[in-house]
Each structure stands twice: as structure tokens, then as C-alpha cells.
Target: UDP-glucuronosyltransferase-like protein 5
Amino acid sequence: MFIMERKKAFIIPFPQHGHINPMLSMTKELINKHHFDVIFYGLDDRREAIENTGATYRKFKHFNLTNFPKMPDLVDVFTYQLKVSNQELPTLLEDYIRDQPDVIIYDFMSLHGKFLLKFIRKKKCLKQPLGVNFNPTFALKPGIFPTDEEWSEAMNKNFWDIIRLVWLFILQAILSIKFRLNIWNTMKFFTETDELNLVGISPEFQPKREYFGNELKFVGHSASDQIQKAKIISDKKLEKILDSIDVINPSFDLDQRTEKVLIFASLGTVFNDFKQIFDKILDAFKLFESEDPSLKSFLIMSVGHTVFEEYKDYQCPDNMIILPYVPQINVLEKASLFITHGGMGSTNEAIYFAVPLIFIPMSADQPFVAKRLCDDFNLGIRFKPFDFTSPQLKDGMVKIINDHTYRQRTFDFSKILNKYNGGKMAADEIAKFIDERDKKQK
Model:
């Protein structure tokens, strides 16, 4: 009887939801279709989701995102990761020597994953695993996308930022000397490619795709509705609101004016501790209701646990609910409008269900996502997070709900992006690459 040899994989992400979630479908495919044993690193807030794929969950020992800045820029992210990598790398190396994985899949933001591979490759006596760089957002090419001007805008340099960059350089030097690694420019190291490079968006979504070569494989967004859709909704009021609205996305009748409008607002799981923004959304929704009283409108706000504590005594009417968390897929399939921070995961899910968007981008890649979808594809409207008023937001709501061309364009774009199954394609590419490498080595 032939027994298929099982390959072993390490998955080493940057342990935030937006970086772990896009890898879950790929993990499930690697385990179920390609017979991999997967060890997936993370933190306890995503343990259940990781284990549901069939992977073995392994907790990072030194990450503590409770101390992560509310509005981090790239310097914050790199500085934090260099500090953590200094502590985490010896543990990861011990795990590698013990488990001997065939492939290490790391998030492009996971400097500790990159450092581990770089260290292993210096030691020729160690088994050399396949390195897979997984990017859940736009691919980057310095000077092309983002442009030098866009990088400078994202960095927003001032005197204190120069001091922070000097400190970043010192941390790079310490880590390079300690582990004998040549890491003197984290910004450059951040955009380096590996043996296999997967981008978790469709090629049509990528800005300036023509400037990126074949070294990148655009696999598309993961079919996350299959993983994250809740079978049971625990909040009875939320369940009642959703039960009162038909599923309209993505196969709705574009010419039919719905009598019920569901507006969904969420700023994600990282940059969501800003009650003043949610207050503006609440005020804008009240103005929106008064604009057309004949239209039955609903508002669902997912505000995170910190802000929810400030709203716990707020008396919501029957058509409004504020919760720390909602099952996003269940809401999006019935939503007429999504007010979002513009995280790549949430944005792709909105497009998957053909929901028009209002962006309030907070940080990271969110301004680039908002600019791409609003300026290039005209799928929504974007506001700067602290520079808009409730009446301006209300006008945006009215414009998108009443102008059905937004729905049409979003629907058309969803058909393009939904051709791809990112999880399946990513797993297939990894398995194919390993098989081809094994054949060459025989």
C-alpha cells in the first residue's frame, strides 16, 4: 500500500487579524488537499481560527500587541518587530531544528520569519527549507509603488521621526551583530523577494501591475466566507435585524430600489479605539434617516471592546445596534453600504459581496487601498479620519445609496475578483514548487 509522504510547514505571520486571516484558507487547503502537517504561529485571539483549519497552533512567546501603538507608522512597526525578533528568533530557531519543516511561509511583514530563514541559509549544515513570502496586500516596489512621494507622505518625517530612524538603525545593527546577519536597511529588507512570492490579491487590483514581473504570483483573495461566516448569531437583536433583511449580495437586482437599507460600519480590529469617529458615524446616520423618512434604514456598528465600554449605556433604537464584534460576512451579504477603515481583508470581503464603500483609512496600507478603489475604480468615497464632519459623511451615504452606478461598478469589479480563490491557488503553488524542487534534487 502506497503511503503519501507528508510535508511539514511552518507559517510565521505578523500576528494581527489582517495578516493571519488571509492565510487560513491556504492552510486548510495545504492540510486537506496536499497532506501537509502545518504548525501555525500566532496569539491566543486567533487560536480557534487557526486550529479550525486543522493546523497545530503554536504561540509566539514574546509578542504582546497590547503595547502596540494605536496609530503606528512604518518606523513604529519596524522598531517593534526588531525588538521582538531579538527575543523571538532563538525560540524559532530551536523549533526549526527540532521540527525540520520543508517550507517556511512567512507574512511579508513578519521580519522575524525573514530573519529565521536568513539565519538558516547561513548554516549550510541545516536542512534548507523552501521560503515562501506571502503578502496579503499590495505588492511593493520602491520608487514605483508607492512612489517616493507617497513613501515620504506615509513616513511624515519631522525632527522626532529622524531621531526614531536613528534608533531603528541602532536596533538593526544590534540584531545584525548578535545573529551575524547583514540587516542594515529594514526598509529594503521589507520589500525583498524569496524563492516563491505569493500576493493575496488579484492582479487587476494591484496598482501599476505592469511594473511587476513574474517573480510575483497574484493568487487572489481567500474565499473567507467559507471560513468566517457564523452559523449562530449570539446577539438576539442583531439576529432580528439581519433576519428582517433579504440577502442581496452579490446577485442583487441592480435596477430595483430596495425598501430597506443596511449600513454597516467597522474600523477593523487594530485602529478602532477612536470613539469620536464612531460618534460622527452615528450622527451622520441620524441625518441620513431624516433625509428620506420613507426609507427603512438600519445601522450596525462594530466598534471593538474598548470603545464598546464607552457605549454600553447608549440607548439604541430598534433599527440600530452597537456591538464590540459582529460576524462580518453575515452582515456584508445584506449590506447596502460599508463604512470601513479600508483594511485589505475587509475591503476584499466587501468587494466579494459587491458592497459599495465609504473609506475612513486610519494607517498602514489603508490610505493606499482607499485611494485605489475610490480614485482609480470609483467604487466609493474616502475621507481623512479626523477631518470630516457628520453632514459630509451623511452626504456621502446619500450619494452612494441613491447613485446606483456605485453598486453597478462594485458588482462588475466583484465578478472580476471572484474569479480567483486565493487559498486554493496559494496552496497549489506551494505544493507545486516543492514537488518540482524535489524532482530536481533526485
